[in-house]
Design goal:
single chain; alpha/beta; 7 helices; 5 strands; 49% helix
């Protein structure tokens, strides 16, 4: 990407239509929402993200505009959330490394998804409950500041491979119990 930007852009110009074709198939099949998941964006600074990734994310998200809700998520992207939200999604996914109130202030979206740390599922009910309460307080603060309209609970990244299913079920129950 850095040593040969021309080749990078050629690659992205070949990959993006393929991704869009796959997304169009999903849209035609009746999906209810879509998520553009970028596992590597967090390795970039904002300038590089804007040059090497944002234009292609915009093209992909544009395809679903007005058809289904669009979620955009990247790992380790706390400092990129503002730029990522320019890509055009209605919902911004937030990983566990940034608070929800800070994320809400950075983005151009009024709905956030996230951001329970998946490692907490190994720490037991008390730790999960404490973090759910903390995240809920951040969400309340973002709403009070006028930066957030809605929130979708989710892990702030995927389920770790050795996570027991019961821990996930219990975390969902705690989220419901805490409101």
């Amino acid at each position: 990407m850095h040593s040969d930007p021309e080749t990078w852009h050629q690659l992205m110009e070949r990959l993006t239509p393929t991704i869009i074709s796959f997304l169009e198939l999903q849209l035609d099949a009746g999906i209810d929402a879509m998520q553009l998941f970028d596992s590597w964006a967090g390795y970039l600074n904002e300038r590089d993200y804007r040059e090497f990734v944002l234009p292609y994310s915009e093209q992909i998200l544009k395809v679903a505009e007005g058809r289904v809700p669009r979620i955009h998520f990247g790992v380790g992207t706390g400092e990129l959330l503002g730029a990522m939200s320019e890509a055009g999604s209605e919902v911004m996914g937030v990983d566990y490394r940034v608070s929800m109130d800070a994320a809400a202030a950075r983005v151009n979206a009024d709905i956030l998804q996230g951001n329970l740390d998946p490692a907490l599922l190994f720490a037991g009910e008390d730790a999960v409950r404490k973090e759910v309460r903390a995240i809920k307080a951040e969400i309340d603060a973002a709403r009070a500041a006028g930066n957030l309209r809605g929130h979708i609970w989710n892990l702030g990244h995927g389920v770790l491979p050795t996570t027991e299913a019961e821990a996930i079920t219990r975390a969902v129950a705690i989220i419901h119990e805490e409101g």
